[in-house]
Amino acid sequence: MKNILITGASSGIGFGLVNKFLDNDYYVYTVSRRTESLSDLKISKDRLTIIKADLTNSSDQAKIINELSGIDNLEIINNAAILIPKPFGNMGIAELRDHFEINFFAPITLLQLLLKQNTVTKVINISSGAAEFALDSSFGYCTSKAAIHHAMKCLNLECPETKFINVRPGMVATPLQDRLRELGATIFPKGNVFSKAKEENKLISVATVANFIYWILNVSTEFRKAWSIYDEEHHKYWRKSEALVGL
Ligand SMILES: NC(=O)c1ccc[n+]([C@@H]2O[C@H](COP(=O)([O-])OP(=O)(O)OC[C@H]3O[C@@H](n4cnc5c(N)ncnc54)[C@H](OP(=O)(O)O)[C@@H]3O)[C@@H](O)[C@H]2O)c1
C-alpha cells in the first residue's frame, strides 16, 4: 500500500486530494488545524490518520514526525499555504513573516525531518503562477511561494533519491478564492480577475486538480520537475470527460 501525507487537508485542494487518494487505496495522513470536514467524511476511515496540527508550531511538528515514524514509501503533498493580501506600503514585517512561516519554513522544516526518518519517494509542492508572476498586494504570498518553488529545484540536486515536483494547479474554486473575491478592489485589485473567472465559469474544480496530481504520481512515467495544469499537451492522458474549467 502506498502512503501519502497531505498538508492543508481540511479544505479546498487538500480536501479534494484526500478524497481522491482514499478512493484509490492509499493510506492517507492529513495535517490541518481544523479537522471537522475530515472527521465528517462518509467513507471508511481505516486508511486515514487525521493529525490535528499547526504546521508552524514546533511541538505540533514533532507530533507529525512521531505519527509518521516507521512509515516507508512515503509520498508528500505540500499544499497548506496562506494568502492574506495587503498593499506593500501597509504590510507589517510580521505579516510577511507569517506568510514565510507557513508557506516556506514549515514545509522545509518538516521535509528535512521526514527525509531523515522516512523513505520519501516523491514530494509534490502545490505551487502557483504567483511563484513566478507578481500579483498586486500579495508580496508575502508571491515571495514565499517563489521561495518554496525554488527550494524544490535545490532539493532535486541535494537529495537525488527523492523526486521533488512543482505543480501549478491553475485558478481553483476553493475557500481561498471565495475569501479573495470578497475583498475590496483597493485591498486586492486582482480580486476582479478572480471574480470574472468565477462569473465566466473558468475556475477549475478541486476534483479535476486531484485527478491531475494523482496521474502525475501514479500513471505518468515521465519525471518533470514542474507541471502546469494549463499545458494542454498532457490533458489527453488524465482528463476524463470533465471540462478543465467550469464546475
Ligand atoms: N485556489 C487557487 O486558485 C490556487 C491557485 C494556485 C495555487 N494554490 C495553492 O493551493 C494550495 C491550497 O490552496 P486552497 O485554495 O485549497 O486554500 P484553502 O482552501 O484556504 O486551504 C488551505 C489549507 O491550508 C491549511 N493551513 C493553513 N495554515 C495552516 C497551518 N498553520 N497549519 C496547518 N494547516 C494550515 C488550512 O487548514 P486549517 O485552516 O484547518 O489549518 C487549509 O486546509 C495553496 O498552496 C495555494 O497556494 C491555490
Task: Give the topology, please.
Blueprint: E1 3-7, H1 12-22, E2 27-32, H2 36-39, E3 48-52, H3 58-67, E4 74-78, H4 93-117, E5 120-126, H5 139-158, E6 163-168, H6 175-182, H7 191-199, H8 206-218, E7 226-228, H9 235-238
Helix pairs in contact: 1-8, 4-5, 6-7
The chain binds NADP nicotinamide-adenine-dinucleotide phosphate (NAP).
Average predicted local confidence, pLDDT: 94
Shape: globular
Show unreliable segments.
none
CATH class: Alpha Beta
Q: For the terminal residues, how far apart are their CA atoms?
A: 32 Å
Give your account of this protein's structure.
- This protein has 247 residues and is of the alpha/beta class.
- The chain has one domain: NAD(P)-binding Rossmann-like Domain (Rossmann fold, 3-Layer(aba) Sandwich), CATH 3.40.50.
- Helices cover 42% and strands 15% of the residues.
- The protein has a seven-stranded parallel β-sheet, with helices on both faces.
- It is globular, with a radius of gyration of 17 Å.
- The chain binds NADP nicotinamide-adenine-dinucleotide phosphate.
- The site of NADP nicotinamide-adenine-dinucleotide phosphate has 28 residues, from helix 1, strand 2 and helix 6.
Summary?
This protein is 42% helix and 15% strand. It has 247 residues and is α/β, with parallel strands linked by helices. The protein has one domain: Rossmann fold, CATH 3.40.50.
Key features?
Rossmann fold; alpha/beta; 9 helices; 7 strands; 15% strand; seven-stranded parallel beta sheet; binds NADP nicotinamide-adenine-dinucleotide phosphate; 247 residues
